[in-house]
UniProtKB/TrEMBL annotation:
Highest taxon, organism lineage: Archaea
SMART domains: V4R
Organismal lineage: Archaea, Methanobacteriati, Methanobacteriota, Methanomada group, Methanobacteria
InterPro entries linked to this entry: NO_sig/Golgi_transp_ligand-bd, V4R
Pfam families given in the database record: V4R
Positions of the 4-vinyl reductase 4VR domain: 137-199
Protein's name in the database: 4-vinyl reductase 4VR
PANTHER family (UniProt xref): ARSR FAMILY TRANSCRIPTIONAL REGULATOR, DNA-DIRECTED RNA POLYMERASE SUBUNIT I
Amino acid sequence: MKRDELKTAIDYYRTKVKEEMAGEKKINGQFIGPRNPTNKLDLDDLIHPERPFLSKDVENDWDSIYVTTFRFGTLKKPVSMVKCGHGTDLLGGMEFGSQLVQKGFIKSVKDLVPVFAKYKLGILDIFSETDVNNGKKMDIMVYECIDCVGLPNIGEPGCYFESGIITGIFKELTHKEVFAEEVRCWTSGYSFCHFSVEINHDPEGSLESQ
Ligand SMILES: [Zn+2]
């Protein structure tokens, strides 16, 4: 995607972020977005998602097809075991994120957006960044995420692999303690993923607003 197309996409989704967060609920400590909840997630939900911006430079319906192929991999886990796999997905993502830096795919923070777009993982947006005592807090959004775009609202976020990727990248770039948690997702009723990221320069201290 070209730089101006990325900017158009980010502007479009930032408006959605504001609208959906304005109408959100908090249930048992979990933010829940505006889409109606369901308790089932099956094959029909996983296949052929629409990604209006990331599909623009791909012919025919190829974007929908390779995203579906990627998702077939998640069906290796039986539904009853999916939650047991979250830690594995997180650790796998962390290793993958570290490798992206070690192998030179990502050399600095400014490479994140083009690399995520090039490999069609999603449209990454560093939405906000705050310096705090002992470190930094960031809100990172991912739009049209390969893992969850179009999935139903099952009441909790599901992008553990992407949380791991973001953690691994920042850990490797900063050599600090990093914690990334997905707090909003398609699977908790939104049209975007929101990762809350903390980079702690002093592992002994806590992150508090200055
Ligand atoms: Zn997500």
